[in-house]
Amino acid sequence: MSSPHLAPPLDVELRPGRTPLLPVEPTSDAAGWTAQHRDGLRGVVAQHGAVLVRGLGLRDAAEAAAVFQHLGLGLMAEREAFAPRQTYVEGVYSSTKWPANQPMCMHHELSYTLEVPSLMLFACITPPAAGGATGVADSTAVMNQLPPDLVQRFAREGWMLVRNYNDEIGASYADAFGTDDRGAVEAYCAANAIAVEWRPDGGLRTRQRRHALVGHPVTGQACWFNQIAFLNEWTMDPDVHEYLVEAYGADNLPFTTCFGNGEPVGADVVELLNQVYEANTLREPWQAGDLLLVDNVRTAHSREPYEGAREVVVGMSAPLRMPVPGAVR
């Protein structure tokens, strides 16, 4: 006989091309509901890789933060940000500031760092007038549809992120590392396998090599886990790319990605990656009050272009330490 104190099982709707959906009865205590169903929600995410919970009616960042915290997995402070965010409370942020008319293609959050969130939490406070869905894609399915020789090369070499920080575009190094003290930045980078090069103009260039494939922390399943396409120069809007090359030079773009040996990743590879991501994307338009939970290792996520105001609150949870593939030479 089941205990009356156990929460009822969660009934997820699976629909072709759509994010797994969990409709729930409206409640005035979203945080309490989340605490009651915490184990069930974790189980759903483990089973499906992502789930959109609809019906909680989350109204503001404070209510979203309470829900995130009641999941009981610990919220992380973001480090090495590539674009600004607003901080609501510790570990709870606005979406990344990114032009509304430009997509943010599939990626695994902070997969260029050594401490990554294994769970991403999103709460929609204000849905956009059009577009703006947060798509999800199973990383193992993506990997299995890529050319084997390409996957094997990334498995051997890993991938490299090259960043050029300045005070004019994107996040400054003070934004990314939380300090403008060069010694503190160098200490952080040394502890996190990041090569540092101070530029004559006072800017900073960093290089960091990371694994492109990792084993899932629970299942051990190999997962395509990186931001090779998202942070590559060829994913930029062509007009933006042309402007940045003219303004800063081809070697001084805010970011780009390479193979692990430092060889540039070409536009053809980036296009192929984005095509395979798109073929495996599930999406569900946001509604006000929605909660989206994403297994950040197993599942990539994106943000589509949108019109109108859009407020989505973000939390990063359940930190996972990644192995270092080797020193950058």
From TrEMBL:
Organism per entry: Pseudonocardia adelaidensis
- Keyword annotations of the record: Antibiotic biosynthesis, Dioxygenase, Iron, Oxidoreductase
Q: What is this protein called?
A: TauD/TfdA family dioxygenase
Q: Which SUPFAM superfamilies match?
A: Clavaminate synthase-like
Please report a single Pfam family linked to this protein. TauD
Upper taxonomic lineage: Bacteria, Bacillati, Actinomycetota, Actinomycetes, Pseudonocardiales
Residue span, TauD/TfdA-like domain: 32-313
The cofactors required by this protein are: Fe(2+)
Q: Which GO terms describe its molecular function?
A: dioxygenase activity
